[in-house]
Design goal:
Length: 125
């Protein structure tokens, strides 16, 4: 049980290094971060959240089902808000982003929101 938590933490450190490397390279190139930046930062958040939640998720009790249900509902509500913001931004040409980059930002936001809300609800319940 302890080794899986450590594995998630090590994977989180790996994605943290990748994220910092993307930021460093984009700073040196004087440009925006690449599209892999959004994926690596969301995977970093996912790994660290799973490292925190692993002892609680391994029990499969009623409390964890409630936490998953509440976190999923919060993430669903956030998805609707993200979609409204993205539609407004693209409709009025506030920010010109390619659709591929927009989808990667959206998926990174969804992954991050879901797992951060699981951590928040695990602290509340």
């Amino acid at each position: 049980m302890k080794s899986s938590r450590t594995a998630y933490f090590i994977i989180g450190i790996f994605f943290l290094i990748m994220t910092l490397l993307h930021i460093f390279v984009s700073f040196l190139a004087d440009s925006r971060p690449s599209t892999l930046f959004y994926v690596s930062i969301s995977m970093m958040i996912l790994s660290f959240c799973m490292a925190y939640l692993y002892p609680q998720f391994s029990k499969k009790d009623e409390r964890m089902r409630l936490i998953r249900q509440k976190a999923t509902m919060a993430a669903l509500f956030a998805i609707f808000i993200y979609l409204m913001i993205f539609m407004t931004v693209t409709q009025f040409d506030i920010v010109a982003l390619p659709s591929f980059e927009l989808f990667q930002i959206f998926s990174a936001l969804v992954i991050s929101t879901l797992f951060i809300s699981m951590v928040i609800y695990s602290k509340l319940y």
